[in-house]
Amino acid sequence: MADSTIEITVNGFGEKVPSASTISYLIEHLKEGDRHLLVEHNGKFIHPQHWDTIAVDTGDTIEFIHACFGG
Amino acid sequence: MSKHDILNSRAPRIDAAEKVTGRSQYLDDLTRPNMLYGALLQSPVAHGKIVKLDTTRAMALPGVVEIVTAKEAGDILFGVSPARYDETVFAVDRVRYVGEEIAAVAAEDIETAMEAVGLIDLEIEELPTVLDMEAALTPGAQELFERYSGNVTAEVFQDFGDVEKERGKADKVYTDHLLSQMQDAAFMEPHGCIAEIDHRGHLTLTTSTQSPHYVQRIVAMVLGLPLSKVRVVKPCVGGGFGPKAAASNLELAVCLLAMRTGRPVKSVYSREQVFLRSRARHQFLHKMELGVKNDGTLVYVDHHATLDGGAYSSFGIATVYYAGSLLGGPYHLPNMRYHGVRVCTNKPACGAQRGHGGVIARALLESLLDTAAEDMGMDPVELRLKNVMSTGETTCNDLNMSSLGMRECLEAVRDKSDWDNKRKDLNADEGEGIGAACGFFVSGAGYPIYRSQTWHSTVTVQLSEVGGGAIVRSAAAEIGQGSDTVLAMIAAEELGILLDNVRVQSGDTDFSVDLGAYSSRQTLMMGHAVRDAAINARNKVAEVLADVFGGPAERFEFKGGYVGVTEGDFDFEKVRTDFIKEHRGFTDNPDEGERFTFKEASRLAFNKTGTIVGCGEYKPPPLGGRFKGAAVGTSPAYGCSAQISEVNVDLETGKVDLARVAMSHDCGYAINRTQVEGQMQGNFLMGLGEALFEEVKFDELGRTVNANLAEYKIPTSLDVPPLDPIVIESNEPNGPYGAKEVGEGGIMPAIPAIMNAVYHATGVRFRELPLNPERVLKAIQSLHSEGGLSFPSDAKCERIIQLLEKRKSDQ
């Protein structure tokens, strides 16, 4: 992981993360682990098979969603 | 014999007498001094740009006090999940469904308010509409929102086990699809609310809601009020079933009117407006592939779903999630893959309705199980029994069956219904059939709707300062399901007093935090909290008794309104004398020789220490899982059900009548046996309606054409067959006293048991719901036609499935 940090939006709030952070890294770093987690990157659903390969860039938005909130 | 004095009994509901004698106060029974009446202007078109909105003529009408639009309300986005806030109080510049709120009027009387609505000058430039899933998903379709590319508001992909790798182990593969219709929850009491604000800016919203807590948060957020100055109170509520579990535009509009006028404002929906509001069950199209070994062992399910969610997100992201995840149980299913997509269309928004997301998926899976059983020459009940999970096992998607009475449920209905004989003896030539199905549901959600570490339920139990009774205070929402009675029974049990001496004050955000009546959570979560609160209060009394009579506090035993000791003795003569002297003139003082009463003990404790309040709280514990950093997961516990339905199908008219239903539900432990059976019966009846009658119909302009209970047909007492509810108690370790849900899970087997029975009677495996007479008759005719069984929606469903599969392959 590179030494520099970038600013992204996570769950609606600004967050500084290492540049080129992957989705998997963010899940671990931000303690979002849950087998039922949904991830959206810039409004698009990201298939779990891509979590290790997709990296975020400055200004990106990430939404971690625990969809098991009932109803 | 029950190990408890009050729990597990058939105690009458504490609110029953008021309800049946008409003394209960529902929202529309309430008035306030100086109250205004609110009415809404709602969009007459399904999709369009607002080009003119002029309230001048309306404001000039005598009796009109205030009119608000998006100009006054602002454009703060709200919804259910913060990740999907996509609604505003009023349409800002665009309307997306017939019925969308555009303005609200407050006037001295309702007639003036409604006349004023008609005087608001509104012009809408109509836009092309998207009215079904196919239209929404077709490339190049009109998009309802810039943020929802391709009209997809939520997409879920779940992959557990390895379907591709294990597919080859299946000897047989069965595939089918099922298309349902949009539903209405048809609660008897329409939405309604009264908002009032005092001179210090404290707003009180009295509203027919399932969740005062979530409404409080949204009102504060959207209207820019401090949370501490917003109070939400729930009066008696005549049903919710899901659509009342989130804040509504009506509530926000009425609050805004109250804030701007300084007067109380009341507004109540008509039945038509209830339909336009919806937030009820989505339309679902499921396609499933079930792989099975020759011996009946299930190998995999490959599942695709498209949901028509109407114009806004509401609970939709959870709906599309649960549509897949709830198939993880109650059978051993080592491999499960699911792709679900929820689209938006120009129709009233859909949300969470009883059984949330899992109902139609369950119907298709149970139908496929029957198909497999028939093809393999196995009895359908035996196939299910071969595959059911047991307590202690974990599903492939990490749902932990801390208790699961699925085998017991299925065996119970098999025996009760005389399945083995009926299966052979019923005469299909005369339209007689019998069918079985199972179901599975969460008992409370693992997470709150907003990201938070909040307690899910908090409760206080205050002992009456005059001695002898207790008041339970909670924000929990009694909406007809009996939660107040459960609160009272648990408090009485732990305090060791009579149920009659417990009062419950609930549904008020001033009392506590409780996330609300949804997701079948209140018995489990609120039950834990009230038990802890009652024990806390009891222990405070015991400590005083230990101090006065000698310890330890643990030796004091509270039971049946009396206090005794487990060891030794204690001389309470002086305490009694003081009590009687304090109550000179009272006629209900303890008799000479009577045991030491709770009344005396709690009065003594108050005199020594002051007010005694016990506090209790609950949030789901981290459940752990195989995933790194495992968090809470879907639910602390899971309920399960089985039903066997007997039908008579009139082969000449297509009408399906239920002859008899055997039903079972594992509720862990029945806090109140009558209430559990009532929920089981209510669940079944709701499923019956969806199986045979209910569908919301739209015309080509997106208008609801059957927005009334005469044309949207729900079951009546004439449709109810003899019901045989059997309660199974598997003793859930995560539940209070072993209890878990019964509010929703029982709907899961209802539709497929009927579908399977109708198949037994007619040979028709239905791919469309509901099974109304016209649909059934046409299907029977097509079965015997040259082309074989077909349904009008087959081609459309195939096109939608292809659009979904293309979307998946493009990922």
> Residue share in helices of chain B?
25-40%
First-residue to last-residue Cα separation of chain A: 40 Å
Sheet with most strands: strand arrangement of chain B: 3-5-1-12-9-10-11
Separation of termini of chain B? 58 Å
Describe this structure in words.
- The complex is a heterodimer of chains A (71) and B (811).
- With 71 residues, chain A is mainly beta.
- Chain A has one helix and five strands; from the N terminus they run E-E-H-E-E-E.
- Chain A has one helix at residues 23-29; strands at 5-10, 13-18, 37-41, 44-45, 61-66.
- In chain A, strands 2-1-5-3-4 form a five-stranded mixed β-sheet, covered by helices on one side.
- The longest helix of chain A is centred in the middle third of the chain and has 7 residues, at 23-29.
- Chain A is globular.
- By secondary structure, chain B is an alpha+beta fold.
- Chain B is built from 22 helices and 25 strands.
- The radius of gyration of chain B is 28 Å and the shape is globular.
- Classes of the chains: A mainly beta (71), B alpha+beta (811).
- Chain A binds chain B through residues 11-12, 27-28, 31-36, 38, 40, 43-45, 47-48, 63, 65-71, and chain B through 80-83, 147, 149, 154-160, 242, 245, 315, 317-322, 325, 351-352, 356-357, 397-398, 442, 444-449, 451, 515, 518-519, 521, 625-635, 811.
